[in-house]
Amino acid sequence: xxxxxxxxxxxxxxxxxxxxxxxxxxxxxxxxxxxxxIVTFNDDGSEVGAIGTNGNVWFQGPSGTAGVEFANxxxxxxxxxxxxxxxxxLGSSSYKFNGGHFSNxxxxxxxxxxxxxxxxGTGTSELFDDYEEGTWTPTVNVGTATAxxxxxxxxxRQVIVSAYLHxxxxxxxxxxxxxxxxxxxxxSNNRTAGSxxxxxxxxxxxxxxxxxxxxxxxxxxxxxxxxxxxxxxxxFADFDGSTQLYVTISYIT
Length: 253
Prior knowledge:
With 253 residues, this protein is mostly beta strands. Helices cover 0% and strands 44% of the residues. The radius of gyration is 33 Å and the shape is elongated.
């Protein structure tokens, strides 16, 4: 059967196995007076889907099932005649999409991320739920110091910080050096040491190396001189006017 632009269909519920339409538009539907359904689809008298408008075009299945709204520059989840927030999934564990390509970022709510639980492992969590880059502001517990290149990267619960410190105003006080201002507090079971490259540190005879250390539930870095069989805190009195410190350390939040 062919329906021409000038023609029409007679009968309230005609049944066709094939319809060919001549003209630029196969069909045109105009809902007037209010927003809502434009076309409904039925199976043996029961609605199984609909196309409608709320100013945009939406498509939905039967009650309680997923649908979509085609909005300005985005596709929004839709259910039962309204936008749905956080209740419709894309794919399932049994029926997956093959891949995807994006020209912008994926944005997830706080506490959610990429779940790697499909891979075997013995970890307590396989959720990658955080990544962050930024700068931090190192401080010292006595006097002042100039800090440069103070950066951090947070990957999950692991934080990596680095900084260059110099020009310490106090080089005479017998107080253990603490570098404060860490961007995150360490966890209650964190105890980590890092690397430190520096000069003009008189930490004592027999020092093998100087190391930064972050204790549990801490927001400060402590400095130690490591000896054979022991380690001692580095104090401001161990510095002079030319002391320079390059510090890198990672810890768990």
